[in-house]
Amino acid sequence: MKFARSHFIFSKWKTVLAASALSLALTACGGTTSTGTQSPQGTSASSSDTLKVGMILSATGTFAPLTESIRNGFQLYLDQHNGMLGGRKVEIKFEDDQEDPQVALRKYRQLVSSDKVDILVGPISSAVAYALRDGVEKDKIVLIDPNAAANDLSWKQKSDYIYRVSFSNWQNGSSVAKYIAQNIGKSAVTIAPDYPAGREVIQAFKAAFEASGGKVVKELYPKLGTNDFATYLTTIAQTKPDVVYSFETGSDGIRFVKQYADFGLKGKIPLTGTLELGDNLILDPAGDAAEGIISGVLYTPWLENNVNQTFVTSYQKKYNKLPNIFAVDGYDAAQVIDLAITKAGSTRSDDLIKVLKGISFNSPRGPVTIDPKTNNPIENFYVAKNVKLDGKIVPQVSQTIPNVTMPETPSPAAQ
Amino acid sequence: MSLSILFVQILTGLAYGMLYFMIAAGLTIILGVMNVVNLAHGTFFLIGAYVAYTLVSKHLGFWLALILSVGVTAILGLVIERLLIHRVYGKELEQVLLTFGLTFMLSDAAKWIWGTDIQTIPVPRVLDFSISVGSVDFPAYRLFIVAVGGALAVILWLLENRTRIGAIIRAGVDDRAMVTALGINVGAVFTGVFAFGAALAGLGGVLGGPLIGVYTGLDGDILVTSLIVVTVGGLGSWKGPFVGALLIGLMDTLGKVWFPSFSMLVIFLLMVVILLIRPRGLFGREVAP
Questions:
Q1: What is the pTM of this model?
Q2: DSSP conformational letter for A399
Q3: pLDDT (tens digit, 9 = 90+) per residue, A4-52?
Q4: Residue range B15-27, pLDDT digits in tens
């Protein structure tokens, strides 16, 4: 009896350990594997009037909301143009890379070799962008980057075949640095997730902030996916800087903003940050806690220009919510493909890259030009303060920072 | 580090520990009594949180939403146990595959229903204030979580030691065959235990909503932590997950203060050390040689 019992408990225990290991492994791999292939037109492989667009984005994990927005924006542009880009019917092949460069490479191979797509849109993650870069260069296929923000895609890893329509970490970090130094305070504590993008954003901020007479007195790097910022918030309370500058996105950003208020720092030390802190993705769930934050945004649904008004109206009609910057990036990815094909009169990569360098378009965020030196957009940023209007927190633009760009090579401060 | 700051960190660690306790308690009871490794347990946490989010945004108020969503997860647990889990008792591999498959299906269903946008549940109005502790404030809601966790520990202790159900459950952990032989309807007990465990996870989800938000992938995050808690605490009693969860909560928070770059490592090191010294976890029953 005794033996049977211990054996029973032992086997139970082995199962716990095995299960823990299994779930850890699977979580690390990115969880679910859902792959959707969307093909509105069931046309044959290489008919000259069909444009095959391969999309590699991250539909599972932290980046899922971004992917959804980018796809929504892209689809909206198609809807507005009879499902055509550059006069050709569009067929979209969608692949989920699960934020994993290895998975992305496999999906990339599939899209290029078996699906034979004409052009690629993606990815979300910078690590994936680096992984795809050499293949794209070798296969000579144009990649329109609607999100991955790593600086080096415009510097050492720059490729004639990769064009970013969104923004780089450099731009996101430096946009409001001068404004903060001149208008809010000279000593700053920065907080950003401990991964390459977090460090790149803070480097850019620090360089621009200190060039304008400010001083970063402390840099905090919590790990990505931090539940609790109590530790960091108490450090900030003890350091007592003039201002806090933060780059926290997704669920981390929401928790950070809420806890900043919960721990009594809101109203005591001004909170500033990157465009994420002025975007609906964070503002809606964070609610009142987000009031008063000053950020450098690239887009708000309330920007006054013709393109944006139409964009917002039709976006709301189709998806029943307000667009965010990522939806705009998806919309512009479609727009830039449309313009490039029309201008080049061809879908051949070598014709497209001639017109993509220096191409200009009217985005819902304002005029955008792809800088031929960096293959990265030159665009306006806006100083926005989150205010409460009709019970809802919205970013209110007070000032335009025109033609924000990034240097052609890494500056000494960024190395 | 000043004393008040240390105090705030400890409170923070306790609040997280209590959340982990709520989910790990269910996990360990289901595992201890039914010998089922329920990998779908994190999903109950997620669904509890999402249901509460929906109810709160329909202006039902936090407290009613809390009760209803705990009820919903309990019913969901009941249905899943009756329809699926009871078919795989004693088959460990099948259980792992079934419950793991369930997490995929349920979390994809959640994605389909609630979308991928990150949501949070607002802190209930009566608790939406902060208490000043030296140079910083501490949110009252976290103290509330600590209190609920403490109350839950007391309730579980009473259930385990003072009630017939507790006696049956304790007996079931030790010798299931004998309990059946005594004429107790083990099937019904199992269904009840499973639903109760699911309800506890749902409770954790609702209470955790204002703290950590509700988002795709939350179920996986929470499952991993609670499996660590169960591993550290050991099976068979409420004490295991309680002490394990508080230990993990505190180590996680204080690890971040003292070793900011590798706080996750601190938790795993703790787990390894405990497994080396006490291979069944802190309160796991010792195996006779």
A1: 0.81
A2: E
A3: 444 444 455 555 556 665 555 554 444 333 334 444 443 333 446 899 9
A4: 999 999 999 999 9
Query: Could you read off the pLDDT of B206-232 as tens digits, one per residue?
Result: 999 998 889 888 898 889 888 999 989
Determine the pLDDT at residue B211.
87
Beta-carbon separation of B216 and A61 below 8 A: yes
Contact between chains at B230 and A22 (C-beta distance less than 8 A): no
Residues of B in contact with A227 (CB under 8 A): 16, 211-212
Residues A189 and A236: beta-carbon distance below 8 Å: yes
In a domain, B33, yes or no: yes
Contacting residues of B for A20, CB less than 8 Å apart: 224, 227-228, 231
Residue B94 has pLDDT above 60, yes or no: yes
User: Crossing angle of helices A325-344/A306-319, nearest 10°?
Assistant: 120
Interface residue of B4, B57, B108, B137 to substitute, partner A, most A CBs within 10 Å:
B137
Compare CB distances from B217 to A6, A15, A62 and report the shortest one's residue.
A62
* Reported ipTM exceeds the 0.95 cut: no
- pLDDT, residue B185, reads 84
Residue A231 sits at the chain B interface (C-beta within 8 Å): yes
Look at A234 and B5 and tell me if their CB atoms are within 8 Å: yes
Q: Which helix (H) or strand (E) holds A382?
A: strand A376-389
Determine, yes or no, domain membership for B225. Answer: no
Residues 272-331 of chain A with CB under 8 A from chain B are 281, 284-287
From residue A347, give the alpha-carbon distance in Å to each of A75, A259, A331, B17: 20, 50, 19, 57
Size of the A and B interface in Cβ pairs below 8 Å: 159
Encode pLDDT of A89-131 as tens digits: 999 999 999 889 999 999 999 999 999 999 999 999 998 999 9
Residue B281, in any domain of the structure: no
User: Distance from A301 to chain B by nearest Cα, in Å?
Assistant: 17
Q: Is residue B76 part of a domain?
A: yes
Give the three-state DSSP class for A341. Answer: helix
Q: How does DSSP assign B25-85, residue by residue?
A: HHHHHHHHHH----TTHHHHHHHHHHHHHHHHHTT--HHHHHHHHHHHHHHHHHHHHHHTG
- Residues B47 and B109: their CA atoms lie apart, in Å, by 10
Mean pLDDT value across residues B74-96: 91
Q: Cβ of B96 and A254 within 8 Å?
A: no
Number of structural domains, chain B? Answer: 1
For residue B113, give its domain range: 18-215
Residue A23 and residue B120: Cβ atoms within 8 Å?
no
The alpha-carbon gap from A266 to the nearest alpha carbon of chain B, in Å, equals: 11
pLDDT one-digit tens code per residue, A286-301: 989 999 999 999 999 9
Please report residues of A whose CB lies closer than 8 A to that of B117.
Answer: 65, 68, 281, 284-285
